[in-house]
Amino acid sequence: MAPARKRLQNLLVASALTAMIAASAMIVSVPGIRGDERKTADPWADSQLVQPAKFAHELVDKSLSVPTVIYVGFRSLYAGGHIPGASYHGTASTEEGLADLKKWADTLPRTTEVVIYCGCCPFDKCPNIRPAYSALDKMGFKKMRVIVFPTSFAADWAEKGYPIQKGS
Fold first, then answer.
1. Does residue 114 contact residue 135 with C-beta atoms inside 8 Å?
2. pLDDT per residue over 100-146, tens digit each?
3. What is the pTM of this model?
4. Which domains occur in the chain, in start order?
């Protein structure tokens, strides 16, 4: 199979998985509250948000130090493709995943520059990013940023041609 065709096939599979996960995340509802009213205040400051294009540029800018990048979503999506150098430390929307993240993070100096991301579904509906950020914040990490994937990692990173690493 031609490399371009294989890449397109991989992107389509990743997009399909993203859509299935996003659909399952949207099934959750709160009685009496419309979907557009469910969003609560985010735990981070606007200055801690980074857009995919800016972060992709940071990865290749040799004058910048590379931060510790953590993927906090679903393992299957991580294995399908993730930001090069990102490590997987549990699905942060689960108790087990959050415990894994905390155990790993406990070994890091609190001055470590950390960038977290998920990208399983639209950013404002992500079940993983907020618990992960809150846990690391409570542990004392102060140099944290969050990558914003408005639609998904597949649409806002992979389909834009930004670098991807596959496997677990």
1. no
2. 999 999 999 999 999 999 999 999 999 999 999 999 999 999 999 99
3. 0.75
4. 3-29+45-160 (3.40.250.10)
